[in-house]
Amino acid sequence: MNSYLINFAIYTLAMVGFIVMAVYVYRKSINISTRGKSKEFLQIENSLRLSATKTVYVIKAGNEKFLIAGDPASTTMLAKLNENLSIDNIISETQNNEKITEFSTMKKLAQRINRG
Fold first, then answer.
1. How far is Cα 88 from Cα 84, in angstroms, rounded to an integer?
2. How far is CA 74 from CA 44, 53, 61, 71, 92, in A?
3. Are 43 and 59 spatial neighbours (Cβ–Cβ below 8 Å)?
């Protein structure tokens, strides 16, 4: 009877040790595979609230920037931004000239950005 309990205890400890080791190896392999990769591929660089529900975002995806309009019903890509174009300057210039309140105004802004 004593040998049965000793064998059971050794077997149980071996299985628990094996499970702990497997979890440790799994977690290490996950860390190695994600190391060196950017954890945030998409970044919001700037946003401009047009109204209570409408917002325009400058999104950076890798090395590219996009002008995106969003509201609860939809999301629309307005333009792909050039590298040499500063959206902050265009938005501040547009705000100085006129109050941005509609998506039509933002579409005009996007067309202006595309023309470069």
1. 12
2. 18, 11, 20, 6, 25
3. yes
Q: What is the pTM of this model?
A: 0.43
Spatial distance between the Cα atoms of 79 and 113, rounded to a whole number of angstroms: 7
What are the structure tokens assigned to 52, written together?
């209570």
The answer to whether 47 and 55 have CB atoms below 8 angstroms apart is yes
Give the orientation angle of helix 87-97 with respect to helix 103-115, to 10 degrees. 130
Please state, in angstroms and rounded to a whole number, the distance separating the CA atoms of residues 41 and 38: 6
Characterise 108 by phi-psi region: left (phi > 0), alpha (psi -120 to 50), beta (else): alpha
DSSP 8-class letter at 35: T
Q: What are the phi and psi torsion angles at 56 (to 5°)?
A: -115, 135
Residue type at position 106: M
Q: Give the residues across from 15 on adjacent strands.
A: none
pLDDT digits (tens, 9 = 90+) for 30-85: 876 555 555 567 888 888 888 888 888 888 887 888 888 888 888 888 888 876 55
